[in-house]
Amino acid sequence: MGTSEKIVGLTLCALTCVAPQASASSIIDFLGEGKAAVVNIHSPSLGNLSVWAGELDWSWVGSKPPGFDASFYSYCVDANHYLLDPQTVAVSTTDYLTAPDSGAGAKVGWLFDTFAPWIHASGTGGDAAALQIAIWESLYDTPIFDSNGLRPDLMLSGGSFSASAAGSVIGRAEQYLSDLYVGTSGAYHSGTTVWLDATSGQDQVIAAPVPEPGTLALCGLGVAAGLAVRRRRRGAAGGSRAVVG
């Protein structure tokens, strides 16, 4: 399977102080798969496919958006298009993701924030493939519950999106979905997350940028000013109480 025939992953993460806004177009160059494994999926638009699922490695071509590393990994949030190399993308937030469930971007954000950094640091290709499957499932289908509770096995075997792989991979994907829908009690929007909206090709989700030193300094000044105001108010309140008492 050639590079242009692979559907693969993308990533997202929380941002401190400022949220990324839609940016001018940037170009990203595909470097290859990171931690990943081959799985079989049913894409809502493309039908049955055998694909690499997991981390995708990229670098920015030309000037990179502020705060981002020169190279990075992602997970795919678009099982309906083929990956292109290079791709032209716009940086935005996952709140703009469109899917049957309006909370799809938040679900992807929670899954990425919770599992992707650990997988990248010490997980396996099977872990990454399972996370990619869970991300796709959360985007294209809604959870299924019956008298036994959440049924991730039914979710992954039918609906708009479905997947099959080694039992251990599917088992981990089911666990990720259980953690998402049961463990969070619906409070899964853990932070503002970043996605790359492709002009053509696949949308990707990536870790949010680290604020530039100037932004961090401004944030620090804002926090310091807020604390100073609170101290002055407490002091004034304390003085009033002393006089009245």
Give a description of the structure:
The protein is α+β, with helices and mostly antiparallel strands and 245 residues long. Helices cover 37% and strands 25% of the residues. A hairpin with a 2-residue loop joins strand 5 and strand 6. Helix 1 packs antiparallel against helix 2 and helix 2 packs across helix 4. The radius of gyration is 21 Å and the shape is globular.
Class per helix and strand makeup: alpha+beta
Q: Secondary-structure element sequence? A: EEEEHHEEHEHEEH
Helix content: 25-40%
Shape from CA axes? globular
The description of the largest β-sheet is: 6 strands, antiparallel, barrel
Compute the number of helices: 5
Describe the strand arrangement of the main beta sheet, using strand numbers. Answer: 1-2-3-9-8-4
Radius of gyration, whole Å: 21 Å
The average pLDDT is: 80
Instruction: List segments where confidence is low: pLDDT < 50 over at least 5 consecutive residues.
Output: 2-22, 214-219, 240-245
For the record, the count of structural domains works out to 2
Give the end-to-end Cα distance, rounded to a whole number of Å: 82 Å
In short:
The protein is α+β, with helices and mostly antiparallel strands. The chain has two domains: 3-211, no CATH class; 212-245. It has five helices and nine strands, in the order E-E-E-E-H-H-E-E-H-E-H-E-E-H.
